[in-house]
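Input/output pair, single chain:
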Amino acid sequence: MARSRPSGTQTLARLFAAYGVRRVYTVPGDLSFGLLAAFLAEGMQVTSCRSQATAVFAAAGDVYASGKLQSLVLAPRGPGVQNAMAAMASTMDNGLPVLLVSPTEDQGTDRTGGFQAGTTGLQSGDGFAVLHVHSPERACAEVAEVLTQCSGPLRNSALIEIPRSLLDAELAPAEATPAPEQPINTGDLQRMAEVLAEAKHPVMVVGHQARWSLDLGALEALAKRLNAPICPTGLTIGFAGEEVETLGQDAVHDALAQADAVLLVGAALDWTLRLGAAIAPSATVFQLRDHPDTPAGARQPDLVALGDLGETLRALTQAIPPRAASPFATPMGARPLPPKLRAQVLDALARDFPARTGLVLDGGTGLILAARNIRPDAPWARLTPGLTGHLGGGLGHAMGLMASGRFDQVVLVSGDFSLGLSLADLETVQRLGLPVKILVANNLGMAGGKLQMRPKTPGLVDYHAATDYAAIMRGFGGEGHLLRSLDDWPQIATQLFATRAPCLVDMREEG
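Output:
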């Protein structure tokens, strides 16, 4: 007899779809197949990765590129969810909301201590909601409440653990509930407007938390009203694409040192601004945020205004009369890059970066610095390892950027150490035929430790000299090139960007 009522998996899939979930990243396994079938029946796109961490980073890249929560990660109980949680810790620090759904094994009185039974035992914390579903009557209502927290201004990440017994049970349905908007404190805005109107050298700083409610037109209008430069942080270089002019990274330090009033737009006094030390001590610091946050260091903003960033910027512009320009001193010139092959290739790429192309960086500080002049034409198209510097997420981030539908292709610049952490997902990129172009800055080891450790025990920091990432890519059925000289880059670049297929270039740099 055909089933007359939907199963728990079907009811949950419909609820996730009602909240806008369109894509699922997973490593298929025990307990997940029923939910996957239900997700597919709802028209969701399911991507099978080679590791749970890559699935999480793909979801993070997806939400960053999309600007809203449209995906989830499915990781069954036991090692699946535990592997995913390490990556979740990084994405949460970066302010990227990720929804992790984990089917669990029931743990009844007769199964206490059973293999991989029960939940993770994690509890909700700041910016992280944990739901252990128990009741079929309350399951959907509780899931809906968590989804509202993830998709609304709070942008919580969440772990939802659902026991096997409920996946085939009849669950009471729940309606999707929109999150309440954060009202703007107009009194705080008036005080900000008064100080900014009188400032001689106001500066605006846009941080990575501005991704979710920033209106670039409103940002540019206020900058023109104040005659203020717009500075990115290290995490938001190129955030505006070609739509709004921003200060070059080499000039940001001087601008902040001269400022007497600084307006942080979705930025925080964290390490991206040296915990406030990058700003002159005498400067007044205002912060605009669309959700509450905990100060990262001892220095705190003089005033904080909460609310939708676009609306807040428009309100400030209306409250500030037009003012005369007060130019800054000539900023310092660009610092010369070291004559390494990596820097030479990235400099050439910056001069001719393709349109409608996303950029993912996955490496240490040297790599991020070398790529600082690469500016995609689209806004919010550049993704880095973020606040925690979690390496190995580049392939996942690239997959997520492609899934958003905003880009024709994605360029991933990765260190060889970083790529090694998720090497198996080269197969995922090839299997899915994603136009991800991977440039490997290959110095055959860990650059940071070579000076200290090589004379003592070189095997700790030097990798095998025969390692050939281009050959590994070809082993997965893809296209791989070995690059040893900048002279060969123009020909390889032409081949790289002439195809929709995934490609890898091993930029071999000795030492």
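Residues 330-338 have pLDDT under 50 and may be disordered. The first helix runs from residue 8 to 18.
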